[in-house]
Specification:
156 residues, alpha+beta, 5 strands
Length: 156
């Protein structure tokens, strides 16, 4: 395999910062692990299991009911192939919504002056705050495929 071909390949192994296989096994249903390669980073599987069990259950149920056939892969998709539509059909009824993230950046500047005292130490004085600077639409247009509460999931 040439170097260019190697760079184009998708890694089928977890990255060096992934959680251990044992940790993933403790938190993800065995039936899901039988069908999928599941990688967790920054303890995501544990966080889902402990803090968001309903969302994890819905994701696992959707994955278990989801199947991809060779026909599905071969069909032209246009805007969206049949594959994500099948997955969506199991999550959307549970109020998983496509979400667009947009945000403004608020910049606050706090200044202080310094006064040199007779003993050569410094005394700091807070100055009145400056007007806020607002960068509208600083983050704009990032879409997330599925969001429910504080859990977000993208399908690649």
């Amino acid at each position: 395999m040439s170097q260019n071909e190697e760079q184009d390949e998708i890694s089928l192994k977890p990255g060096p910062n992934a959680d251990s296989v044992e940790e993933v096994r403790r938190h993800i249903a065995p039936s899901v692990l039988d069908l999928y390669d599941v990688y967790s980073y920054r303890h995501a599987a544990a966080i889902l299991k402990v803090s968001f069990p309903e969302q994890l259950r819905e994701i696992e149920q959707s994955l278990l009911s989801f199947r991809i056939s060779l026909e599905d892969i071969a069909k032209p998709g246009g805007n969206e192939s049949v594959i994500p539509k099948q997955f969506s059909s199991s999550l959307r009824p549970h109020k998983w919504y496509e979400t667009r993230v947009q945000g403004d950046l608020v910049i606050r500047v706090y200044e202080q002056s310094e006064e040199v005292l007779e003993n050569s130490s410094l005394k700091k004085h807070k100055l009145p705050p400056k007007d806020e600077i607002i960068a509208k639409n600083y983050i704009d247009g990032h879409k997330i495929d599925y969001v429910k509460g504080r859990v977000a999931l993208n399908m690649e």
